[in-house]
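Sequence of Integration host factor subunit beta (Benzoatithermus flavus).
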Amino acid sequence: MTKSDLIKRLAAANPHLYMRDIERIVSTIFEEISAALARGDRVELRGFGAFSVRARGGRIGRNPRTGDEVAVPNKVVPYFKTGKELRERLNALDG
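Predicted 3D structure, token representation.
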């Protein structure tokens, strides 16, 4: 599902709201999650999951084309851990 698909579904489920307001709400939520992660904060959405950041140490990698060694610097990457409700819902689809 893309961001525009999400907005369309929310608009269909909430016909009393204007599309522009729904777009603004969705964008604001994503911006706030991004800003919190950029600050190094953790974002927890109960029942859905938690977003956080993890540090990856630097290492020596290889250029796949030439085989030359390349220094890969330290970096911070986003991490998502599913919540219990979401995990149970996904596993219920298997059974």
